[in-house]
Amino acid sequence: MREIAEKLTQIYGPSGSENKIRKAIESEIKPFVDEFHTDNLGNLIARKKGPGKKIMFAAHMDEIGVIVNYADEKGFLRFAPVGGVNPIITAGQRVVFEDGTTGVVGCEFRDIAPGSFPPLSKMFIDIGAKDKNEALLKVKIGDKAGFVQGFSVNGQRWISKAFDDRIGCAVIVDALKKVKKPLNDLYFVFTVQEEVGLRGARTSAYAVEPDLAIAVDVTGTGDTPKGFTMSVEMGKGPGLKIMDASIIVTEKVKNFMRSAAEKRGIPFQNEILVFGGTDAGAFSVTKSGIHSGCISIPSRYIHSPSEMVDSSDVENASKWIVSICETDASQAGF
Ligand code: CO
Ligand code: ZN
Fold first, then answer.
1. Cβ(254)–Cβ(226) under 8 Å?
2. Which of 157, 187, 207, 234 is placed for a possible disulfide with 56 were both Cys, Cβ 3.0 to 4.6 Å?
3. Is 307 annotated in the active site?
4. Per-residue model confidence (pLDDT) at position 62
5. How far is the CA of 276 from the centre of ligand 2 (A)?
């Protein structure tokens, strides 16, 4: 699991630019699925045939990033956020474009009152160009960049950029390799453009029309000093989504997911996220409504270039998916 997590987190892939990450996932899963294709938006939809009900698992491939919208005469690039980029942790970060061009996020410090945080509009990307012409030879208006940060291991804890949601991708890739006896017809979907509005989720769920759709994504934790007020902690098991800003999970879905965890002794925590949503929200209101749930990986520092997860939660999320794949959903009334 560690190798696939490290490999997938380090790949470039802001929303709308998921080609590289999709290719990497495709080559990982190819030998383990019966068929796969890419839809018009760029979602990767794979199937492992089985009897019974259609169950879809999904993780989003995209990460937050920035898009260049202006170059000044001196070659400094202005940008807009792609997804929820937090200004407090943006200045001073390193960013990389699809072709490997690297830049630093600089800031108009002179205009910023001491002790206050600059907005993104006071920042720029410096790729070291001498002037506008040189800058635009390397980076075009409309090019996107992702944040740069390596993968670190501190015992059970892992730290990396883009755990949101490459850790979900890694968990699904790991699980689909381990499913031995599928008792459901399985779809594994790697979605695009979650960070800008759950967009790939809508088209993929519409096409697959599953009997049950389960997103795998990160969630916040309440275990840092004066952090969020929530009971989720790292290392206490993956989260069973109860509610977030995009979905209220039904009793039927929660009961099925709970029993699949309990029968294999997999720990989990009830998760309520008061801000933000996941692909599960879009699945649930697709077509005439799709039974939807979410397995949440507790993560500190979400949407920073150094997100942190506990590897036991990651491993348990994979086991949970395998258990659901090997539990007949028709018996639960789906
Ligand atoms: Co996110
Ligand atoms: Zn996410």
1. no
2. 187
3. no
4. 98
5. 9
Q: What's the pLDDT at 117? A: 87
Question: Given 18, 28, 63, 194, which residue is catalytic?
Answer: 194
pLDDT at 241: 98
Instruction: Report phi then psi at 88, rounded to 5.
Output: -60, -30
Between CA 184 and CA 278 the distance in angstroms is 24
Q: What is the pLDDT of residue 115?
A: 85
Angle made by CA atoms 86, 307, 170, in degrees to the nearest 5: 125
- How remote is the CA of residue 75 from the centroid of ligand 2, in Å? 33
Instruction: Return the ∠ at Cα 302 (arms to 278 and 70), rounded to 5°.
Output: 90
For the domain made up of 66-147, the CATH class stated in words is: mainly beta
Q: Enter the tokens of residue 158.
A: 């892992």
pLDDT in tens, 191-200: 999 999 999 9
Evaluate the CA torsion angle 243, 21, 170, 332 in order and state its sign.
Answer: positive
Query: How many angstroms is it from 194 CA to the middle of ligand 2?
Result: 7
Contact 62, 18 (CB under 8 A): yes
Find the ligand nearest to 296 CA: 2
- Residue-range domain boundaries for the chain: 2-63+161-332, 66-147
Q: pLDDT at position 111, please?
A: 84
Classify the phi-psi angles of 75: left when phi > 0, otherwise alpha if psi is within -120 to 50, otherwise beta.
left
Give the residue ranges of the chain where pLDDT is below 70: none
Burial class for 137, CB neighbours closer than 10 Å (0-12, 13-18, 19+): exposed
CATH architecture assigned to 2-63+161-332 = 3-Layer(aba) Sandwich (3.40)
Residue 189: its pLDDT value, please?
A: 98
Q: What share of the chain is helix, strand, coil (3-state, %, to 5)?
A: 30, 30, 40
Cβ atoms of residues 240 and 260 within 8 Å: no
C-beta separation of 107 from 118 below 8 A = yes
Question: How much distance in Å is there from the Cα of 111 to the middle of ligand 1?
Answer: 30
- By the 8 A CB rule, do 181 and 48 touch? no
